[in-house]
Amino acid sequence: MNEQEQQLLLQIADDELILGWRDSEWTGIAPMLEEDVAFSSIAQNEIGHARALYELVARARGTTADELAFDRTPEEYLCARIVELRLMDWERTIARHVLYEEADAARLERLKASEDAEIAGLAAKIDREEAYHRMHAAMWDERLRGEQRYLSALDELRPLLDERDGHTDELAELWEQMTVVRRSVPGATW
Amino acid sequence: MTPKEQGFLEDVQAGGQVETTDWMPEDYRAKLIKFIEMHGNSELMGVLPEREWILRAPTLQRKLALTAKVQDEVGHSQLIYRVVEDLGKPREQCFDDLISGKSKFHNVFHYPTKTWGDVGVIAWLVDAAAIISQKALLKCSYAPYARIMKKICWEESFHILHGRDVILTMMNGTDEQRELVQEALNRWWGPLMQFHGNPIPREDDPMYVWRIKSQGNEEARQQFLDGYVPQIWELGLTVPDPKLRKRDDEGVWEYTEPDWDELKHVVTGHGPKTADRLDLRRRARENSAWVRSVVLADAA
Amino acid sequence: MIYEVFRQERKGQPFQHAGSIEAPDDHFADVYAREQYGRRGESAALWIVPRAAVLEIDEFVDELDRNYHRVDGYSLKAKLKEARERAGTAAAAPDS
């Protein structure tokens, strides 16, 4: 795996990690109990995808998935600004979900065509899981289409999809929380 | 009690099972709703102390396990509130009563979580205390509730293992990590001892009389001590109760009398985190009210 | 709308009632049932049905005790003993 491939995988992994972290914040407080359970699975899948991608890169670099996920500084993450935002209202959460799934689907298609068999294989697995995410996103998109606040949310977030130059303060805040226990006893096993 | 009610009572005490559409005494239905609703409330409120740590989980594996555990608890509340709704009290009314303080939830969920040590102690010991009560509910006279308890108990089995794994990893780690565990245990021991309720004889407990519960409070607590004190001691941890010991002759655990006033004070809505957590629930519910009205509006 | 969920633990086994979920339509019900009753890979298949579509029958009438189509309607012990004695095979035959 060359450096360019590693960077691409890290970019996707960082997107999935941070989005998964954000989506997991709905666990326990989603609009309906049944939705709470479903959305939590989506968040877990995203973290799972990140982990699998980190593991590929980690092997190439002689490190571990956890070290890649937690032990870089906020500036070193390669995620898009859209996933960093803390969006605790349902209209923007779903808008982000719908927009991200669409962009991610295109990205995964390119990855599935990779010459590296491991990368292509993992991309195919991830894509099969993402099919359910897309189903869930489509379901909500259909339901909320008539709501102005949702349409406004789509307009507000769409431009942020491709913004990767520099990070928001929100990522630094999230990183603080993500790493607080880990940093409290450096090098410890948890 | 009317003869029909007396007949019903004898039937459940002999192991009879009741289904949703069966006739039942008003008192039985009322007690059932109150008991089951409190369980649902507890699962839902139990999510909140753990949620904060989902964000702070120190490894990807722990992050996934903790999110899944909390997800299970939400899932359990869904199962439980469905049972309450089929008994006649709609979910939204349950939430109204929870937020207003009219209905209650278990003491342990009114306390703060301060460190990763708490995460381990809760998953290992609080879940253990809960599972003892839950296993006894497998024999509940109300069949729909007994049936969901099967799924709940099965899912809880991984929670306790996860908790023990977190604790063991810390106990095998550094001095600071071991200190985190001991400190958390010191804070949680009081609420744990109060968890199963004060030791009223089971014949005086209406929940037992109707066979909603199949076990008395003290019986549950003894089971908890029997199962888990040895697990605590074998790790070199101390329990902050100098009187705690097992009387060899009768196999009964002795302990300092728990503070029943504290228990009452906490469950009636005066715990350290009660107001904050109910407020969080209230705000989350208000913010998402529009979603429910859009989604559930045209549904039958 | 309330949907009843039936789950099949493994292929070949019967579908059993597992619980119920609230969902606005079939699409949501699919997603929600899948999660509540399948996120651990614990079900081979699920059937979800709107509660209104389920017809319950819980009263059966058998006033005249129709035991002729049940096993307990056939008490053969005495007749078998008599038949064996007539054929002289009573001592050799095992009790059945």
Write up what this structure looks like.
The complex is a heterotrimer of chains A (190), B (300) and C (96). Chain A is mainly α and 190 residues long. Helices cover 73% and strands 0% of the residues of chain A. Chain A has one domain (3-184): Ferritin. By secondary structure, chain B is mainly α. Chain B has a single domain, classed as Up-down Bundle (Ferritin). Helix content of chain B is 68%, strand content 2%. In chain B, strand 1 (245-247) and strand 2 form a beta hairpin. In chain B, helix 5 runs antiparallel to helix 6 (143-171) and helix 5 (116-136) packs across helix 9. The longest helix of chain B is centred in the N-terminal third of the chain and has 31 residues, at 26-56. The model of chain B has no long low-confidence stretch (mean pLDDT 95). Chain C has 2 helices and 3 strands. Chain C has a 3-stranded antiparallel sheet with strand order 2-1-3, with helices on one face. Chains A and B meet through helix 2, helix 3 and helix 8 of A and helix 2, helix 3, helix 6, helix 11 and helix 12 of B.
CATH class categorisation of chain B: Mainly Alpha
Question: Per CATH, what is the topology of the domain at 2-53 in chain C?
Answer: Ubiquitin-like (UB roll)
Taking pLDDT < 50 over at least 5 consecutive residues as the criterion, the unreliable ranges of chain C are: none
Supply the CATH superfamily name of chain B: Ferritin, core subunit, four-helix bundle
Radius of gyration of chain C from CA coordinates: 25 Å
Strand order of the largest sheet of chain C: 2-1-3
Overall pLDDT level of chain C: 90
Secondary structure category of chain B: mainly alpha
Mean pLDDT of chain B: 95
Count helical runs of chain C. 2
Question: What is the terminal separation of chain C in angstroms?
Answer: 55 Å
Total separate domains of chain B: 1
